[in-house]
Design brief:
The chain is an alpha+beta fold. The protein contains 6 helices and 9 strands; from the N terminus they run ααβββαβαβαββββα. α3 packs across α6. The radius of gyration is 17 Å and the shape is globular.
Length: 232
Amino acid sequence: MVMKAGLRAGIAMAFITLVAAAGSGPASGHEQHKYGGSQSEAAQSEAAQSGAAQSGAATGSSAEGAGAEPFPADIGGAFELVDQTGKTVTDADFRGRYMLIFFGYAQCDSICPVSLKRMTKALDLLGEEGEQVQPILITVDPENDTPEALARYLPSIHPRLIGLTGTPEAVHAAMKSYKVNAKPMGRSWKGTQVISHGSYIYLMGPDGALLTIMPPVFSPQAMAGIIARYLG
C-alpha cells in the first residue's frame, strides 16, 4: 500500500509539473503543438496513451466507473465567469454533472480547434452517457474573447460546447486554479494574436474534483475510453 501511494504521488507530481510548465515549453504550448517536432503525431499519441494506461493502473482506475479513483493532484477550483450568452456562470452551476474543460481561445487556428473537436467527438462517441459531461472552453484571451466573439465561434466546434470568459482577473484566477499558463507570442500571418498556452484537457467530477487529465494528442476514441471509466 505504501508503494502504491508513493507511486500515485509521483505520477501526480509529474502531471503537475507538466501542467505548470504549459505555456512556456514545447510540451503543451499553443503554436508548438507538434510536441517537439521529431516524432509523428501518431507516435506521440501512442506514447501518451501508453503513459496514461500506466497512470490509470497506478491510481487504481478500472474499466468501470465505480473503480476509477480521482486523480491525486490539487488542480481545479472555484471560478466565476461569463458564458457566450452573457450569463454569469460559476463552477457550482455544474455540480451534479461532469465537466470536460479545455483552455484556449477563439482566434487560435491550430491546437485549440483540434483539441476541442476531439474532446467533443469523444462525448458523441459515448452516446447518452456522454450527455452527462459538459464540454467547456475557458478562454486564455479575455480581451478578445468577448461573449459575442465566443457565440460566433463555438457553433463551428460543437452545439453543446460552452465558452467562458470574463475580466482578465477572473480568467487568470481560473487559469491559476488549473495550473495553466499563457503567454502572448506575437501575431500570426493573419494579424491575429498568437498565444502559447497549456493545452491539457481536464475531466472534472460531479463534485467539482479533478478525475483525470488528457493531452490533446489523444484520439477521440482514446478519450472516450478514458472518460467512460469515470461515468456512473
